[in-house]
Amino acid sequence: MKRLTAPLFGLIALALPLAAALTYLWVGPAFAQEPHEATVAASATHANMAMLGAAISAGLASLGAAYAVAVVGSSAVGALTEKPELLGRLLILVGLAEGIAIYGLIVAVLILNTV
């Protein structure tokens, strides 16, 4: 089986924080207005959507980072068996793969600041 899923999974991992940020922009104006009795139920729905967007952002970005670290980590171990002096460079690559989860967490925190 070819690794056709790696680019697709990477695109999904990068697109989901963007989708969560768009959800934040969609939900944010609802909290900027004065709450009226008619909009109390709507703001509860917006709060639920914000929490759902934050959960999707953090969760799927973490899954994307886990997959990226698995692929990069296994390749790094293979490279280290041949050239042990590449350890520092390969640790940087694994750290960059882990950055995807940090981006998702940052977007989730930004979304939750509106609630």
From TrEMBL:
Domain of life, per UniProt, equals Bacteria
Keyword field contains Ion transport: yes
Protein localization = Membrane
* Keywords, in A-Z order: Ion transport, Membrane, Transmembrane, Transmembrane helix, Transport
Pfam families named among the record's database cross-references: ATP-synt_C
Q: What is its main location?
A: membrane
**Which InterPro entries has this protein been placed in?**
ATPase_proteolipid_c-like_dom, ATPase_proteolipid_csu, F/V-ATP_Csub_sf
Residues in V-ATPase proteolipid subunit C-like domain copies: 52-111
The name under which this protein is listed is ATP synthase subunit C
Q: Which organism is it from?
A: Mesobacterium hydrothermale
Identify the PANTHER family for this entry.
Answer: V-TYPE PROTON ATPASE PROTEOLIPID SUBUNIT (PTHR10263)
